[in-house]
Amino acid sequence: MIRVTALAAANLVTLLSMTATALAQDEPKPASPATPAAESGGNAKPPAAGESELTPLNKQGTVLLDRQGKRLRINAKVVLREGTLEMLLCKKQTKEHESILAVDAQAYVIHAGLLALGAKTGTPVQFLRPKPGGEPGEFIEDFRPPTGQKIEIYVQWRDAEGRLRREDARRWMRHATRRFFGEALDKLPAITLPKDGELRYDPRNKELTWYGIMSEAERDRLLALSKDDAYRKAVRSLFDRSQLRPMEADFVFVGSGFYIEPDGTRYYQAEGGDVICVANFPTAMIDVAARSSASGDENLLFEAWTERIPPLETEVTLELVPVFEKDEPAPDEK
Length: 334
Hints:
Blueprint: H1 6-25, E1 39-40, E2 54-56, E3 63-66, E4 71-78, E5 87-91, E6 99-103, H2 107-116, E7 126-130, E8 139-144, E9 149-158, E10 164-168, E11 173-175, E12 180-184, E13 200-202, E14 207-211, H3 216-223, H4 229-242, E15 251-253, E16 258-260, E17 266-268, E18 276-277, E19 286-288, E20 302-304, E21 315-322
Parallel strand pairs: 1-10, 5-6
Antiparallel strand pairs: 2-3, 3-4, 4-6, 4-21, 5-18, 7-8, 9-10, 9-15, 9-21, 11-20, 12-14, 13-14, 15-19, 16-17
Helix pairs in contact: 1-2, 3-4
């Protein structure tokens, strides 16, 4: 038996009632059957043409429940193609300067749709915890990654030739390269670093640093400067870490949370824009299950893979697919 706290139950009722109220204001009709299968680069097979009936969950028709396909569909637009990222998806008119996609929808509607599919929320990221025996308000560092049901995310769009494309949304993001990389190095060997390169040594912090992507030619040039093992190991590590690497972290349904106003009004925190995050936020609805700093552009872990993202304003359909364990059937299978 699943035990639900009074506060969690109240929050769930609030989300569902908010969605019901929104639907009652403009009763949406079932949408057309799901689009035909696209050219796919993902693992989860899309439903066959005509197999699914989509139920709009908001009057804009941007959030659609696909019960047969066991997924939630979100109609969004490309709003950013270059730069470091905090989001894959944000609410319209919130955080478009750091999110690839934006959707005209309330965040609670998306949350309620995932609940309707049987997805379970987890816990938000934790960076600090109260210091044992410390004073009130005194904390120590204690990172714990966000948890929740795994959500596979796919993107569908039409390319310049009109072909319907579909792939894992993580292919649109990669580990950030427009940043500094650092490696601990107790002492720099007796060499002179090239002035026309990006390699620097900080004697105070005992760190060798590099900015951006290091080419093989640059790596070999730096390795030729010294036979010192520690130095060569640091250069090789900087080279490896600076290369283009796709995002591999899983997305999890954290669930965001509620802020309770003095008058008792509950405010769903993801309405601030934190819908699908790639930098850890305690207010995220969906987050990455890995450590990903949200502090400062130079520390952001992921950036847009520009060459793989369609032009700005391209209409994109996201598929949010809750992943159930083998012994945990989806709601309609119970």
